[in-house]
Amino acid sequence: MARKPHLRSVAAASARSAVSPASSAAFATPGAALAPASPRPSPPVPARPPCRALLGPRPLIDGEDETNYDVILERISADVAPADFVEEIWVRNVVDLVWDSVRLRRLKSRLLHAAAHQGLDRVLTPLIGWASADELSGKWAAGDEEAVCQVEELLGRAGLTIDDVMAQTLAARIDDVGRIDRMVIIAEARRDAVLREIRSRRAAFGQALRRTGDAIDAEFEDVASASGSA
Fold it and tell me: DSSP characters for 162-215?
């Protein structure tokens, strides 16, 4: 049977270990105990580079305002509240996909506006013939005041409006509009997939935390049961 160490020797060893070199020096030097201990310099914390600097510049094209992009980024970041860098990457993906959707819708509108002369040509052809309609619609698109007035008169006499012109414009560029709409659908589906991935990752992380907590609780219960039986 192993011999238990003497209580006095154990107490003496504990007392010696409790006295640190700093406190020994304070007892050795008069007045040293009153001097404040100089704090240890903390190791420098590496600066965390901003997510934008790591993931590249804003995906803007000519005519787009970076302020609008930053507003979307800030608001989505505030709503999602990314917990780590992985979620910051996903948030950036969501913002870029939202920006793509907004851009595509805006460009679709501008496409129809720029191609309005094609719709006007289709509307005017039954009224004044193909050659005259082509020439008049070209002048109308260029902003010629006389041509604008003439077009308004022709449309008014036929009981037509600019809506009829834009309807024919849509028909003329329906393939382009359809491709743009499909691109919008794809961008929005990818956006929703990233948001689902964030929710799934957080749910899995929460389940892992609950399992860890349950395991720790079970260990404490085992220890408490063993102590009670002893």
Answer: HHHHHHHHHHHTHHHHHHHHHHHHHHHHHHHHHHHHHHHHHHHHHHHHHHHHHH
153-195 per-position pLDDT tens digit: 999 999 999 999 999 999 999 999 999 999 999 999 999 999 9
Domain spans of the chain? 65-209
The residue whose two tokens read 């209580």 is: 7
**H helices of 31-84, where?**
51-55, 66-80
pTM above 0.70, yes or no: no
Nearest Cα residue to 198 out of 42, 125, 93, 68: 93
What CA–CA distance (Å, rounded) separates 104 from 110?
Answer: 10
User: Residue 200 corresponds to which amino acid?
Assistant: S
Phi, psi of 225 (to 5 degrees): -65, -40
d(CA 83, CA 77): 10
